[in-house]
Automatic annotation (TrEMBL):
Cellular-component GO terms for this entry: cytoplasm
Function: Catalyzes the phosphorylation of the 3'-hydroxyl group of dephosphocoenzyme A to form coenzyme A.
Name of protein: Dephospho-CoA kinase
UniProt cross-references to PANTHER family, sorted A to Z: BIFUNCTIONAL COENZYME A SYNTHASE-RELATED, DEPHOSPHO-COA KINASE-RELATED
Keywords, in A-Z order: ATP-binding, Coenzyme A biosynthesis, Cytoplasm, Kinase, Nucleotide-binding, Transferase
Keyword set includes Isomerase: no
Family stated for the protein in its record: Belongs to the CoaE family.
GO MF assignments: ATP binding; dephospho-CoA kinase activity
Keyword Transmembrane helix: no
Organism, as annotated: Bifidobacterium myosotis
Length: 212
C-alpha cells in the first residue's frame, strides 16, 4: 500500500498560509483547503443551509436562498455575536467538512495506488482553525506546520488586500486561536515576515523531508 504523509497546515488569517499551501501544491501535494470546503458545504441544495436557517433564523439566508455571508460574519464573528454562536455553526458545518476531506483524501489515495510510483502521497490539510479542533478533528497528522506573522502585519494585509475595515479585521483575528495556541500544537513554525524566497526555501526543505 502506498505510503501517505498527512500534514496539518494552519496559521492566523493573513499570515501567509495560502502561499505555503500553493507552493506545496506546485511540488505535488494534495491540498485540502478547509476554507473552500466550508464554502462548498453551504452551497444551495445542500443540507447545511436549512440547518443554519433553523438555528440562526431566516436572516442568515439571502432572499435567493444563498448564505448571507455578511450577516453571518457580523453575528458569528463580530462583537454583536451571541455567546456560543460560533460553536453552534461549527456543529452544523464541521461534520460535513470532514466528510468532504475524507472523500478527497480517499480518492487521491486510490489514484496514487493506481499510479504505482514510489513517491509517498503527501496530503496537506489546510485548516485555519486547527488549534481549536485538534482534539475533535478525525485525522491524525504526521506533522503540523503553522505560518505566523505579527498581528499588526496581518491587520494591514486584511485592510489593504481584502478591503476590510479595521473593526472587521480585528474581529476576524480575535475570532481565531492565538499565535501561542497554534505554536503549541505545531512541530514547525514558518515565519512569513522573512523574505519570500527564504520562506519558500523553508517550505521546499520540509517537502523534501516528507518525500524522503
Amino acid at each position: 500500500m502506498k505510503r501517505m504523509m498527512r500534514i496539518g497546515l494552519t496559521g492566523g488569517i493573513a499570515a501567509g498560509k495560502s502561499t505555503v499551501a500553493a507552493r506545496w501544491s506546485e511540488l505535488g501535494a494534495l491540498h485540502i483547503d478547509y476554507d473552500a470546503l466550508a464554502r462548498r458545504v453551504v452551497e444551495p441544495g445542500g443540507v447545511a443551509l436549512p440547518e443554519i436557517a433553523k438555528e440562526f433564523g431566516p436572516h442568515a439566508l439571502n432572499a435567493d436562498g444563498t448564505l448571507n455571508r455578511s450577516w453571518v460574519a457580523d453575528h458569528i464573528f463580530g462583537k454583536a455575536a451571541e455567546p456560543g454562536a460560533r460553536e453552534r455553526l461549527d456543529v452544523i458545518e464541521h461534520p460535513l467538512i470532514y466528510d468532504e476531506a475524507r472523500w478527497l483524501e480517499a480518492n487521491a489515495a486510490a489514484a496514487a495506488e493506481r499510479d504505482g510510483n514510489g513517491a509517498p502521497l503527501i496530503v496537506v490539510h489546510d485548516v485555519p482553525l486547527l488549534a481549536e479542533v485538534i482534539d475533535t478533528i478525525p485525522f491524525e497528522f504526521d506533522q503540523i506546520v503553522t505560518v505566523e506573522a505579527p498581528v499588526c502585519i496581518r491587520l494591514d494585509r486584511l485592510i489593504e488586500n481584502r478591503g476590510m475595515t479595521v473593526e472587521q479585521a480585528e474581529d476576524r483575528i480575535r475570532s481565531q486561536s492565538s499565535e501561542e495556541e497554534r505554536r503549541a500544537i505545531a512541530d514547525v513554525v514558518i515565519d512569513s515576515t522573512q523574505p519570500l524566497p527564504d520562506m519558500l526555501a523553508q517550505a521546499d526543505a520540509l517537502y523534501r523531508q516528507w518525500e524522503a
